[in-house]
Amino acid sequence: MSDEVERGNGLVPVQYHQFDISDEDGPAGPGLGRGHNGLAQVADGTITVMTGIHTGDVDVTVTLHHAQPPPGSDPWQEIVEISAHSASGDLMVRGIMDDLDEDLPVLSFNGPGDYRLRIHARGRDSAVDLTPGRVTEWYLIQAWPAPTRETTVLRQTDTYGATVRTR
Asked: What is the residue-wise DSSP string for the chain?
């Protein structure tokens, strides 16, 4: 069990079915194709989280921990753990074309180095390919310092993720 260091929540702008997790000073991780897990991919040093909606806002909660926490307790449909690296200590959730209205907590809260991210998603089947006027998708990103290891899939139950995995 882990003590939570910090928590933040906000709306994240989505374009083209995605929002990013990146460190502007260096690659966030080794390449990982989206077909691998249907939720997150790493390409060109950026972690991309795939959303069901094409454009709009998703609700994202970030929690920071000193050690590996238990998975989120809400009814999450997809849960994937990936390793991430922060060259500058500025690993953050970012929109790909628009800035966040208010920044979420910095995922690399312990400074430059290696982290583990557990990304949870629900609601991705609600408005696939649409631009809804209200939030239809929720994400939880838990982060803690940890050495690099293989991606771990903890849950895969939504239809959108299954579709992404077959591309």
From this structure: ---EEEEEEEEEEEBTTEEEEEBTTB--SS-B-GGGTSSEEEETTEEEEE-SSSSEEEEEEEEEESSPPPPPSS--SEEEEEEEEESSS--EEE-SSS--SSPPPPS-TT-SEEEEEEEEEE-TTSSTT---SS---EEEEEEEE------EEEEE--HHHHHHHH-
Asked if the model's pLDDT at residue 25 lies above 80, the reply is: no
* pLDDT band of 64, cuts 50, 70, 90: very high
Options 2.60.40.650, 3.30.428.10, 2.60.34.30, 2.60.40.1180; CATH for 4-166 is 2.60.34.30
Q: Which residue has the tokens 């920071």?
A: 64
Per-residue pLDDT tens over the stretch 27-61: 666 655 555 799 998 887 789 999 999 999 999 99
In angstroms, the CA 98 to CA 94 distance is 8
